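Hi team, as promised in this morning's meeting, here are the two structures we talked about. I've kept the exact order from the run log so nobody has to guess. The first one is mostly here for context; it's the second one we should focus on when we meet again. Sequence first, then the predicted structure tokens.
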Amino acid sequence: MFSYKSLIASNQHIKFYCTSKCKDVIPEPYPAKKYIPDWYKRLEMNISKKMDANLLHHINATDIKYETPTIKRCPPFLDAMSAGWIIPLAADIRFNIQDGGAGISWEHDFFDPMIETHSLGQIYTHPSFPLVPVKLINHWIVETSPGWSCLFTPPLNRSDDFLDLLSGIVETDKYFEFINFPGFLKPLADNMTLYAGHPLMQVIPFHREYLNETIVKTLGKKELEKLEKTRNKRSSHRSLYRDTMWQKK
């Protein structure tokens, strides 16, 4: 639903613009499905007794009798990782962290600004206070078709050892401007370097009309019968959703 193909098929678009001096210099945005973590790639679809004995012991599965599916058989998990595009960091930034993150300084060699800070007063009730709130400068303008907004969020279902960025939604069909990325550094060491290409944000376009109407109700007879039918199908087909309902993105 959030792929380039689906946007084109519905005569919609998403465009990424940079300045002429950044063109062919900074890493370009790319489909999120190209940023799948190595741990996920290595994971088997099922746990079985044919696996290495040491691994089975480590995951408390030495007495397994039947194949057990892993999270790799969960399409919603994969779809969350694959939706939209990734905006990477434009250039290397070297940080010096003081007082457990309450003070920071940085340097870089890039010709444009790479980072700024917000005042502590802007986040004084946030759980990360008193870490210094930073703003990573994004060098890409995102533009979408009329009626389409974008969710900017740290890459879903992937851990980041260095950054704790905040999510936001922007009407990218109306606001033609660079959207910067606020958040916090994770003070794991006194010195750290973020390298060009580090995945910063996952950009997921969506049509705003879906917010116009909401229905909240209890399950009635019709819905309970529908639920029972779904569960009966699942009881005879373990991968019912994956095999019969899921649409590959």
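And here is the second protein, the one for discussion:
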Amino acid sequence: MRCTRNPHAATPAGMSTQLPVRVRRDASRSSGPASTGSSHAGSVAATPLHAAQPACTWMRLRARATMLSRHSNAARPMRILVIEDDAAIADAIGAALANAGHAVDRLASGRQADAALRDHPYDLVVLDLGLPDVDGAELLRRLRARADAVPVLVATAREELEERVRALDLGADDYLVKPFALREFEARVRALLRRRTTRGVPELALARLRLDLPRRRAHIGTEPVELTPREFGLLEALAARLDRVMSREQLIEALCSWDKTLTDNGLDIAVYRLRRKLDGSGVRIRTVRGLGYLLEAAGD
């Protein structure tokens, strides 16, 4: 199975794996399908699945997971839309976001971006104002007119005070002037995502497992756990739906971008490797045949 996207949306170009130290403005410039239908939100066979778990252990685990279930806006890794018509800049920030473990979609057209924002849920939008067809400020105005509260980081060459004030008044959450250092860009992204996903609480604790969501790091006790971006995204998605099944289709949709695919075999490999790394954490990934996977308390 492969992740599919809207056939009418342009497929973005591939991302560069080389990150420049700074993103510079080009002096020549003048200016998925929606989430899979079934959510499987309810618990599956609640009594037989958890009958073997100690009640006190399970209740503590559920209580610690309540923070994420209350504050997360989606049970999936962060999906970010980059709207930028300068290919070099889009390559750099797209690669930086992908290396941080986020699913990244890229578009260079304001019209295509407007359609994508209507059809797909995003956790963050990185918006250039100087787009070739629809001005970024107009795109932002339309977004807020639909009462869409997705955080928007404006990254633009327009440095005038009036432009900054206008964008912030239209509903931008942050404003960054090109050229900018990638480290600053990444810090601003982390701050915006932290506000969206945890309302300022950056860590999730499940038994002995701790997840640092903004920095995308994991620890078992005090020991760091080396996770790939895909493995962290998988763990984050399952942790956000603790004790609830996520289908294979939902996980594949959460873990891939428009220009990348994830096969069933690739998902199985990621689950297998993550299971091994969670040994001793107090939680485990259970396969629910015919439905998908869920994260639950490990047995004694």
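Starting points for discussion:
Residues 78-197 form a domain with the Rossmann fold fold (CATH 3.40.50.2300).
The two ends are 35 Å apart (CA to CA).
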